[in-house]
Structures are given as structure tokens and as C-alpha cells.
Amino acid sequence: MTSPEEIIAAAEAHSAHNYHPLPVVVATAEGAWMTDVAGRRYLDLLAGYSALNFGHGNRRLLDAARAQLERVTLTSRAFHHDRFADFCTQLAELCGMELVLPMNTGAEAVETAVKTARKWGYRVKGVPDGRAKIIVADNNFHGRTTTIVSFSTDPEARADFGPYTPGFAIVPYGDLAALEAAVDDDTVAVLLEPIQGEAGVLVPPPGYLAGVRALTRSRNVLFVADEIQSGLGRTGRTFACEHEGVVPDMYVLGKALGGGVLPVSAVVSSREVLGVFRPGEHGSTFGGNPLACAVALEVIAILRTGEFQQRATELGDHLHRELAPLVDSGAVDAVRGRGLWAGVDINPSRGDGRTVSERLLARGVLVKDTHGATIRIAPPLVISKEDLDWGLGRLREVLGV
Ligand SMILES: Cc1ncc(COP(=O)(O)O)c(C=O)c1O
């Protein structure tokens, strides 16, 4: 058998170094657990950046995928297929919206949202051609395409990738007055993560999302909520916007919509907004393919039961109760989050995010650092309370608490 070290060396020799993975080589996974090539088990506290909300190897999702694999997997949108209408109808219904535009990755869905908002701005709002402006927040993470990194404030994500796409204004996240000052007659959309995931699970101040909703409505500006990481059960609700009773004009969805089985993303909005597209103006060979629709339909059915939202609420309350004392102990500077989702800022006296992740790996727990000092805890929502407690025990151990 090839050793993990050999596999890692071969990966490093033959792949671009656009990631810095932890030194573990996963071979199989089930539920909240992964097993490496040597048979060692690890508790997954990352869940594929929330793509695996319903767990590894979820039976319902695998069965749906298997059944569809035997029927038809790809038609392209040149033809209709018999899962497409159901997928669009049911996703629109889940979102309380009217139309769906399916894509594959999250970044593609964000690009789609940007194109939709601009076209709506020109065709419906009446913004003069070429002047559409979209307001975003600092510390955002919406993906990696050239347009999306154009409005990133992370130097690592941006440097050397210019020239940058114009048409974006950046305001401080959570600052309603700054947002209000930035809105002008050319503004077509405000694009925000309801909770900023990659930034370290930053929850905006209470009232912010409701304030954004009121402001955008009064200025005829679209509120576009990127729920790619925050949505589909993670925070205890189907959408994180629900915590403030907010319904945006457009949801941008991805990650868990494909159940960790395959990439499925979508923009979901009203007829007024998504109705702006005509044939030939936007598309994707794989977007809305039968396999993707079959898996996503099962994801929607799972979400309809409310079971995982409930789990995320209950286990999330427990998680945050367990994490809070770490701040009092001095090992951790801050804990943020909502539902089964937490950003934990490690006090420098206990190491940085990467060293803590490596020490956890050695004890059989998988997490990933973000922005130096922070680790993110976002287990699959199927995790048992006992397993979560075991993982938190290992965290206390590596922090010396
Ligand atoms: C909020 C948000 N938007 C967009 C993306 C990009 O998704 P993808 O990596 O599928 O392109 C991510 C990925 O982490 C995300 O967290």
C-alpha cells in the first residue's frame, strides 16, 4: 500500500499549491467520521465548509443519486429532462420565491447573481447603461473568479489577479449608516453574507439584516443574500436571514444544495428579477443536470422535515454553551456563531489556528484554520452529541484547558 506520506508528496509534486491541506489522506467517510488510508478515524468538524450538512454518505442522498445514475445524468439545457421542473418548483417553494436559475459551484451562482442584478438594474430599474453599482461588505468571501476577487478585501485573494472588474463599492460589514451613505441612484444591489463564514463566522449586529432589508426596499435596490455557507440548516434555520425575519430579493445557494455528493448551486428570486433573462444570455453545460436535480430534490425533501434545522439549534446551543468557558479560561479570545457553527479565535499564547488544527488532527479531530488565529467548527448536522462532546474534549486538551 502507498503510504500517506507518499500520497501527500505525489499530490504536492503534481498539483498547484493553491491549498495548504492538513497532512491527512482520507479514504472513506460516514456520518461525521472520516477514515484515512491507514484506517485511522477522524471526527469531521468542518463538513466540507458546510457542503456536508447532512453527513458523509447520507443514505437518502446516495440512494437518490444511484437511482438517477441508472436513468440519465446529463442532457444539457438544450433539452428538457424530467427532474428539472420538480427541482425548480420545489426549490422556489422552499425559498418562498418564484424562479430558479441553476448553476454548479458557489462562485458561478454569485456571478449569476451579479449578472442578474445588473440586468435588472438596466432593464427594470432604469439605471443608465454601464453604470450599475453593487455594494458589498469588507471581509466578504463570495468565491474565486476574477470578478468576485475584484471586490474582495483579502490581499491574498486579490494580489496579482488584476485588472479588476469595476462596478463594486465596499462598506464595513454590519455598519448600516455606511451602507446607507453608499447607496445612490445607480445602485442595483447589496450583496451580503448574512453571517460571514470565511471571515471567521462573523455575525452582524442585531437589526443589521432587517435594516438592510428596509433600506434596500426603500431605495429600490435588490438585497442579495449569499447563503451558500450559512444556508440550508447550518444556523438552525433553512436560511440565516430568517433569524431576523428577513426575506431578501435573491438567495444565492450552493454547497449543501448538492448534499456533498456533487456541486449544485442556484440563484432563486422573483419573476420580476430572474425573469430578465432571455435564451442565450446566460447558461452552463452542467447547471440543472438530472443528477444534480435528483440529489438536490432529496436535499430539499430533507430540509422540509425541519429535522436538521432542529438539530442545528439544539446541538448549536450546546456547542456555544461548551465553548463560552474557553473565553473565560483565557485560551480563546472570542467565540462567535449561530446554530451548529462557530468561529473560535485562539489566544496567541496557545498557538495559531494552524498549529491548533494540527494538534487536533493528531488527536483525531479535523478542523481548519481561517485568517491565522481562528478555527471554524461546523460539523455535519448529523453528528451525535456524544461525538461533539468528544471533539470538544480534544479541543480543550490541545488548548491546555
Ligand atoms: C459565502 C460563500 N459564497 C461563495 C462561496 C464559493 O463557493 P464555491 O467554492 O463553491 O465556488 C463560498 C465558499 O466557501 C462561500 O462560503
Automatic annotation (TrEMBL):
Q: Which residues, by range, are in coiled-coil regions?
A: none
Q: In which pathway does it act?
A: Amino-acid biosynthesis; L-proline biosynthesis; L-glutamate 5-semialdehyde from L-ornithine: step 1/1
Which cofactors does the annotated protein need, by name? pyridoxal 5'-phosphate
Task: Give the enzyme's EC designation.
Answer: 2.6.1.13
Keywords assigned by UniProt? Aminotransferase, Pyridoxal phosphate, Transferase
Q: Member of which family? A: Belongs to the class-III pyridoxal-phosphate-dependent aminotransferase family.
NCBIfam families in the record = Orn_aminotrans (TIGR01885)
What protein name applies here? ornithine aminotransferase
**Organism phylogeny:** Bacteria, Bacillati, Actinomycetota, Actinomycetes, Kitasatosporales
